[in-house]
Amino acid sequence: MSEQTLEKMDLTTPAFVDENIAKLAELFPACVTESKNDKGEIVRAIDFDLLRQEFSDNIVEGPQERYSLNWPGKRKALVTANTPISKTLRPCRDESVDFDTTKNIFIEGDNLDALKLLQETYLNKIKMIYIDPPYNTGNDFIYNDTFTADKDEYDEASGQRDEDGSRLVSNPDSNGRYHSDWLSMMYPRLKLARNLLRENGVIFISIDDNEQASLKRLCDEIFGELNFLTNIIWQKKYAPQNDAKYFSASHEHIICFAKNIETFSIGLLPRTNEANKRYKNPDNDPRGSWKSSDLTRQEYRPRDDYSITSPKTGKKFSPPDGCSWGRPKEKIEEMIKENRIWFGSDGNNVPSIKRFLKEVKQGITPQTIWERKDVGDTQEGKKIIKEYLGNVSIFETAKPPRLIQRQLLVSDVKDGDIILDFFAGSGSTAEAIMTANTKANYILVQLPEKCDEKSEAFKAGYKNIAEISKERIRRAGKKIKEDFLKKEGADKEGIENLDIGFRVFKIDSSNMVDVTLAPDETKPDMFDSLVGNIKKDRSAEDLLFQVLLDWGVDLSLPIIREDIDGHAVFFVDGNALAACFDEGINEDFVKKLADKQPLRAVFRDDGFASDAVKINVEQIFKLKSPATDIKVI
User: Which terminus, N or C, of the chain has the lesser number of Cβ atoms within 10 Å?
Assistant: First the structure.
């Protein structure tokens, strides 16, 4: 048996172009052709002329006028979304809370990289996405996606990145590509985000008037115009701006799209006491409280033009001129016998239908205007953060948790659902989920954007926004737990089920020594250094999580570390995966691990004591655990 029988893991993000070609090939096999890539290799490709013809019953020749959103840099933005990366997520236990038990995740790094890294593991698994991206006001920053983080020398020499490695660039309104640069930044992120949504998933995007129209058009293209749910108007503040030149802006937009509107189910808001007070019971009906509803139809139908007689007074009622009754005569007579038609307490009022409270929907259909009294405003968001972080004004326009909790309700989020926020900012999404009446989990992504040295945040000891986000979540979780314990009847089981923790991961270059770099990142002089394939500063846990990413395993699953024959073995979710990255692996150890019959097993390629051991690994597992899938890195 050859030592090549053990399959080596790729450890790069998916090649999205190859996946797209495969999908198109299933639908339009005649459009598949072959071409040569940059290396001169024959690869599968799509004949775009034939593909365009598939969507037209006329001969397609050259560019045609069409309704579309276009801007300088759009094609490059599409390439950016499709380009694979050779990066990983490195766990950071010191900055985490309840690392071993929590199901929440905080990722520090560029959200474009994060979205690519999450594709395998969370494809079609996210129930709700909420983001609060840069509004492109001319004063804020946008992501610079014209480089990759590994090309240090080139980036610094070309001025694409400063000496501190900043991924953000200013976008003043004097920039000739002001709107285009913002759209190019948003396009690949939303495209990748859509892949992560479940079929019944939904995305909410906060924005102001400056880019609201462009964002709506962009989402029409990415999510499909038919999947547009609504444009929510949020009353973000109350006090008017007397120095405003034209209008004092007191609102923002929240653009809302479903992944698939046919499978999305709207969540109803809780009924308020005010709404329930409209239901009375003046006739002591045993079916409970009710309210009267108009019986007439605002159109004339001869079939429904008849007289209704009050059983109490004998008075007859005809529909108003030009109208008719809303039910056939036979149905009305049946409803009168059932005491479902109301003629007033004295029997002389125009008949109406009794609608009982217990028969109406146990919730209220959400409206498109969200008032600050119901969901909070930016002042509330700012105040909450000040209370957590020592009365320091750090975020002036932070979103209040109540705003995001309303989105959780509307999205019909259930226990175990996952919510994603890849512009985490102040961390309001995490607090909203922790305090909501659900056991949903979150994935937050935040770039370690540097705080200005003159800012209140920097003076308070925070070097970047990611540090602020994590500290806010820690303190919010602590307060939530303290408040829970103060509740009357708080029990131990309830405290144990309260997940206020989060696993911190930081985006970094691959754990492998430049072996899995993308083609455009390789250099001729680097191959002499490829002696060992794993970087010396990487831990076994670093390797484990890169394996989980590549294998598409949930990053929040429980992990147990065991010692077998002096070797550290990580067991993920019980026996779902066993990983050992020690060196000096011998056959006795392999036999003992195979006895545990894990579904998957992974080792480091150079971790075996000898070539003979490596050759015999598959044979040992075939005898003791034939169902185990074995790979090496």
Answer: N
